[in-house]
């Protein structure tokens, strides 16, 4: 498993004596897709597969550069690079490298598909993706979901969830959120804050549909002001009110939504941190108790799940940096990689 830590370590999350300076994922200089494609072709053809070269090339390029390499590869090798990599690699290395070849939208769409396909539903993943992505990202995810799986995301979500939880997710998937406006409507802010209070903390039980419509239809800057104003009505802030009013998956979903409205970077930083803690604890436990993990498929699968989360966070970081958004969790990500290395994962 040393390979996985190496890949993560090479995802330009450089760990040095100094804190990494923004940005940590930048396009490679003197980039030559043909040369890279040739290196990958040779690496795949090498007996036993030259995994190191594949890691060296693909983890040190941005997503758009990787796409160019794939195009150059297809031109010279007359076959699809992703299928070739799939055939050449296996295990966690295959998972991570194939994940890197997907755009964040494709990755999100396959996460959702994976969480509802087959028997049962992985609610945690479903909540994480649907409640933390922006309206524009959800619009793209729906489109890509249809392209990749020939299925309607709305129908799939409706078929796999129920009750108020289903209503909330569907409201998000319907992408009715207002665009941020340059005019601050103080009257509307006050009205929404009061409505949230009167539908929850003020009454016995909870008027969930009112919460859903406000949280799925208002713009994010508007909601940030609504939650501030909310404190004038309620003795509890919005997150505390959610914990008091609703339970289970519905509670988890509202909490992810509100955390992301308030500070999305912080939300992802804490998810990354949480994932790392679990991986560290699991590995410490097993190195102590057993000295090996391979046969313990249950725990190994759990670890893999957290590695995927970590990868999702890294892909997201890359996406944000490329789209020019400020990102604030470099130190968390670096600490995560240090931990992974310490675990020899
Ligand atoms: Ca109540």
Automatic annotation (TrEMBL):
Protein's cellular compartments: Secreted, Extracellular space, Extracellular matrix, Basement membrane
Gene3D superfamilies attached to this UniProt entry: Annexin
Top-level lineage group: Eukaryota
Swiss-Prot/TrEMBL keywords: Annexin, Basement membrane, Calcium, Calcium/phospholipid-binding, Extracellular matrix, Phosphoprotein, Repeat, Secreted
Record GO terms (molecular function): calcium ion binding; calcium-dependent phospholipid binding; cytoskeletal protein binding; phosphatidylserine binding; phospholipase inhibitor activity
GO cellular component term of the entry, any: nucleus
Family from the record: Belongs to the annexin family.
Protein name: Annexin
Species the sequence originates in: Gasterosteus aculeatus aculeatus
């Amino acid at each position: 498993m040393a390979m996985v830590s190496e890949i993560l370590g090479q995802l330009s999350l450089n760990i040095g004596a100094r804190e990494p300076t923004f940005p940590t994922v930048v396009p490679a200089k003197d980039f030559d897709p043909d040369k890279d494609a040739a290196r990958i072709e040779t690496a795949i053809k090498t007996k036993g597969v030259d995994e190191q070269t594949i890691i060296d090339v693909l983890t040190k390029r941005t997503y758009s550069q990787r796409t160019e390499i794939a195009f150059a590869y297809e031109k010279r090798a007359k076959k699809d690079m992703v299928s070739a990599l799939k055939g050449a690699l296996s295990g966690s290395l295959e998972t991570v490298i194939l994940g890197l070849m997907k755009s964040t939208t494709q990755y999100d769409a396959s996460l959702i598909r994976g969480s509802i396909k087959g028997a049962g539903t992985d609610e945690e993943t479903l909540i994480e993706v649907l409640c933390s992505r922006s309206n524009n990202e959800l619009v793209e995810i729906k489109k890509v979901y249809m392209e990749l799986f020939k299925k309607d995301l709305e129908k799939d979500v409706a078929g796999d969830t129920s009750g108020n939880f289903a209503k909330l997710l569907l409201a998000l998937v319907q992408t009715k959120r207002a665009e941020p406006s340059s005019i601050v409507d103080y009257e509307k802010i006050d009205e929404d804050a009061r409505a949230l209070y009167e539908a929850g903390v003020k009454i016995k039980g909870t008027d969930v549909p009112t919460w859903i419509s406000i949280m799925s239809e208002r713009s994010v800057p508007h909601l940030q002001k609504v939650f501030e104003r909310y404190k004038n009505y309620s003795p509890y802030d919005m997150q505390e009110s959610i914990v008091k009013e609703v339970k289970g998956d519905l509670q988890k979903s509202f909490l992810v939504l509100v955390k992301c409205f308030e500070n999305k970077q912080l939300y992802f930083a804490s998810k990354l941190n949480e994932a790392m803690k679990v991986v560290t604890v699991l590995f410490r436990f097993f190195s102590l108790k057993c000295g090996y993990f391979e046969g313990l498929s249950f725990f190994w699968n759990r670890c893999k799940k957290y590695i995927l989360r970590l990868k999702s966070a890294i892909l997201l970081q890359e996406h944000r940096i490329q789209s020019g958004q400020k990102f604030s969790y470099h130190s968390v990500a670096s600490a995560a990689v240090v931990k992974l290395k310490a675990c020899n994962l």
